[in-house]
């Protein structure tokens, strides 16, 4: 049997490694497609870009692993069924569950490793990836002035050129507006040609201009608008050099603690601590708000609604009012007092309703915050458990369809993964909105797909022809014959008419 175990493991590990890296590359390409606009034009070196992709690729591992296991199981058992290897093993008296046994042990080990990866490596890599991506977003793009339009990427300057030589980097017909004084377009420089380069340390932009002039409006102090004469100064030059300081063009790295309280950056113990703390804060707020509403709002409503200026708002008086007959007290009032009482009661009800709506919104935010941490806590387990679920779907399904290669298994794998993903995301949204419980929502995909895997395993073990179209045609034929017999029996049992 050791030879059988080695054969099955060798047949499975190759496709698993191949499909894992394939899925991982697809997820990385998806990431690049989503953030290409924020990465392009920033002048990132390969070291920074490689670090970003490395950390994000680690965050994709828990998601890529279940899909890779599903696809590899389909390919492995599909190939074994297509080349009659399963048939030969079964004819030797080896059941399918014995053939799957070494792989079940392997997948259980992978699931445990996946959990420890999600609990220890994933928070660290997510923190690094999110922090670096945030730093890249803050970095301004490299200076890339295009001809024919104004470029506003340099702080406090607006630059326009007519043509640009890509070989010599010569700029022709330059117009430069200086907005550092914050007085509008009061300072402008026009040049016939020029060159532009950044300083070696990247902190400044040096512009060398030729054959032009500078126009500056001179500000007038203590002069009314109607009396202004708008004096100006115009200086001609053959060569002039302008140095512009640059800020924000370098990548400034933030410390790793920027997102330390984010739910995705915490492990199981930290999430448990946050959930416990947030639950205590929620219960405390709930108790305080109930006491506040009971002691302040209720008593205030009662005292304002049923007392006039002849009464004093005291606790003893309120207790007497609560013990009295409200209808009798209300009937004893005059018509004008009744109207005042009703208006005040309506106003107090509106105020109380607004108060309750505000507090309910505040408490709903607290619940959503708790649910966010509970979602991440359950994710540590659901993604690991998904490895087992997908294996028990892929392995028996591959044995049933007996179709190897990459095409058919890929289509089936994508279908089941999309179903799993949709159920998971829908359940997560319902949990975060406090519509369903955390366990019911986060584990919905697992306890929906796991019975399917158990059913497929049973069918594959009993050599069921579940994927044979003739089986279903025979079923419909039997159903049709059965219904026809019922119809004929009813027709024969009807009395004949004279």
Q: Can you put this structure into words, describing what you see?
A:
The protein has 13 helices and six strands. By secondary structure, it is α+β, with helices and mostly antiparallel strands. The chain has a domain at 157-245. Strands 1, 2, 3, 4, 5 and 6 form a six-stranded antiparallel β-sheet that branches. Helix 3 runs antiparallel to helix 5 (96-138). The model is unreliable at 301-314 (pLDDT under 50).
Average of per-residue pLDDT values = 79
**Helix/sheet category:** alpha+beta
Sketch the topology as an H/E string, one letter per element. HHHHHEEEEEEHHHHHHHH
Terminal CA distance reads 78 Å
Secondary structure: number of strands = 6
Please work out how many helical segments DSSP would assign.
Answer: 13
What global shape is seen? flat
How can the largest sheet be summarized? 6 strands, antiparallel
Strand content: 5-15%
List the helices and strands and how they pair.
Blueprint lengths: L1 H38 L6 H14 L1 H22 L2 H7 L4 H43 L18 E4 L2 E2 L6 E8 L8 E12 L5 E14 L14 E14 L22 H39 L8 H9 L2 H6 L3 H67 L5 H26 L5 H5 L1 H18 L7 H25 L5
Antiparallel strand pairs: 1-3, 2-3, 3-4, 4-5, 5-6
Helix pairs in contact: 1-3, 1-5, 2-5, 3-5, 3-9, 3-10, 5-9, 6-9, 9-10, 9-12, 10-12
Would you kindly provide a brief summary of this structure?
With 498 residues, the protein is α+β, with helices and mostly antiparallel strands. Helices cover 64% and strands 11% of the residues.
Question: What keyword list fits this structure?
Answer:
alpha+beta; 13 helices; 498 residues; six-stranded antiparallel beta sheet; 11% strand
